[in-house]
Amino acid sequence: MFTAIHHVAIIASNYDVSRYFYTELLEFPVINEVYREERQSYKCDLKVGESQIELFSFPDPPKRPNSPEAAGLRHLCFGVKNIDETVKKLENRGIDCEDIRVDPYTGKRFTFFKDPDGLPLEVYEG
């Protein structure tokens, strides 16, 4: 029935800051970007492997509850080939990463960092 995750949508509190973060620091290529006048909103489609991130701006979006175990989407995870190289690259760009941990069930290494709005992002080696 389902074959893949097509996209994940993110609403940024500051579109320019988040666009820079995702396109320049994380190096996701822009597929398409439009300004929707009727909604006073940008929509930027970013390529992530075979999937996409839809980055939106809206006037005065509500704040997200700041609880790590709140109901809803917990985090967004990106697969990487070499976690050490990825973490080094992120940290060289001023992005703080947590210590690398090992998943006790898979033996794979992973860590977390945050986007400009505090959205938890994970990188997972393998």
Automatic annotation (TrEMBL):
Listed InterPro entries: Fosfomycin_Res_Enzymes, Glyas_Bleomycin-R_OHBP_Dase, Glyas_Fos-R_dOase_dom, VOC_core, YwkD-like_dom
Domain VOC: 4-126
Alphabetized Gene3D superfamilies for the sequence: 2,3-Dihydroxybiphenyl 1,2-Dioxygenase, domain 1
GO MF: metal ion binding
Pfam families per record: Glyoxalase
PROSITE patterns with a match to the protein in the record: VOC
UniProtKB keywords: Metal-binding
NCBIfam families reported for this sequence: PRK11478.1
Protein name: Glyoxylase I family protein
